[in-house]
């Protein structure tokens, strides 16, 4: 598969680009007293992996919700968002000549998208700007992920969120999978925000992580050598971080380089 970075006419902004956020969390290291032994400030990779989240970590108080730009062309912009909507994520798969029709809740047509028969592009009637979990109508990427209610909510339609509003897709018209937030998270690679780094490891902001365990609002993560674009920057890190606060994500989903 050709990389989306190989298309000069298309500007693509991925969540994995390492966005800068003004909100920052107070690090655990700054709370330690001068009398503590040096080994307590050891880096995460030198510490054995805990099997459950630490019980003494300070609750996160500031990790502001954002809407990062995910994909852009001259006529179209796609944003993702930290706000979580619905019970999970619907991922829709489009094969050659498949058409995705999206409707208002009153059955009126909202927009559509077609995977064209020459296998290289999509024809779309999407708005110039969309906000969705992950919408990249590029043949080499082809991502169609939407926050959604559980499929059992309606017998005929998937209830999805597009541009922060409920829309619907006929189940009979598409191939789809539904994942709870926890399952979706477990199947993604992530990056950490400046406000939510591993304790004692400021370099963790430059790593791509796999999710190895989930417990309530916390996740155990391990840096991924396979997904690190520049292996020179790879560091073996692992530990626990918070993945959401109420209905706001506090980590970023990241593609595997």
Description:
This protein is an all-beta fold and 257 residues long. It is built from one helix and 19 strands. The chain has a five-stranded antiparallel sheet. Strands 8-9-3-12 form a four-stranded antiparallel sheet. It has a three-stranded mixed sheet with strand order 1-2-7, with no helix packed on it. β1 and β2 form a beta hairpin. It is globular and about 50 Å long. It starts with 68 loop residues before the first strand and ends with a strand.
Ordered list of secondary-structure elements with their pairings:
Elements: E1 69-72, E2 77-79, E3 88-93, E4 99-103, E5 109-115, E6 122-124, E7 129-131, E8 134-136, E9 143-148, E10 157-162, E11 165-170, E12 175-180, H1 181-186, E13 189-192, E14 209-215, E15 218-223, E16 238-242, E17 244-245, E18 248-249, E19 251-254
Parallel strand pairs: 2-7
Antiparallel strand pairs: 1-2, 3-9, 3-12, 4-5, 5-6, 8-9, 10-11, 13-14, 13-19, 14-15, 15-16, 17-18
- For the record, give the distance between the C-alpha atoms at the N and C termini, rounded to a whole number: 12 Å
Q: How would you spell out the order of helices and strands?
A: EEEEEEEEEEEEHEEEEEEE
Residue share in β-strands: 25-35%
Low-confidence stretches: 1-48
Largest sheet: 5 strands, antiparallel
Assembly level: single chain
**Class derived from helix and strand content:** mainly beta
Shape field? globular
Residue share in helices? under 10%
């Amino acid at each position: 598969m050709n990389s989306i970075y190989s298309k000069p006419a298309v500007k693509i902004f991925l969540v994995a680009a390492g966005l800068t956020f003004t909100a920052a969390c107070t690090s655990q290291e700054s709370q330690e007293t001068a009398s503590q032994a040096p080994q307590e400030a050891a880096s995460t990779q030198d510490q054995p992996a805990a099997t459950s989240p630490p019980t003494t970590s300070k609750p996160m108080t500031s990790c502001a919700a954002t809407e990062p730009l995910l994909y852009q062309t001259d006529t179209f912009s796609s944003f993702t968002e930290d706000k979580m909507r619905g019970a999970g994520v619907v991922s829709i798969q489009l094969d050659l000549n498949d058409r995705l029709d999206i409707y208002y809740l009153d059955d009126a047509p909202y927009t559509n998208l077609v995977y064209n028969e020459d296998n290289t592009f999509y024809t779309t009637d999407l708005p110039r700007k969309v906000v969705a979990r992950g919408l990249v109508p590029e043949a080499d990427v082809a991502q169609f992920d939407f926050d959604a209610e559980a499929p059992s909510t309606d017998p005929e339609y998937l209830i999805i969120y597009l541009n922060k509003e409920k829309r619907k897709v006929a189940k009979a018209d598409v191939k789809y999978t539904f994942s709870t937030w926890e399952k979706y998270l477990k199947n993604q690679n992530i990056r950490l925000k400046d406000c939510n780094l591993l304790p004692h490891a400021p370099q963790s902001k430059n790593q791509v992580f796999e999710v190895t365990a989930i417990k309530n609002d916390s996740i155990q993560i391990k840096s991924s050598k396979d997904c690190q674009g520049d292996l020179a920057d790879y560091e073996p890190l692992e530990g626990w971080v918070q993945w959401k606060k109420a209905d706001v994500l506090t980590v970023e989903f990241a593609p595997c380089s």
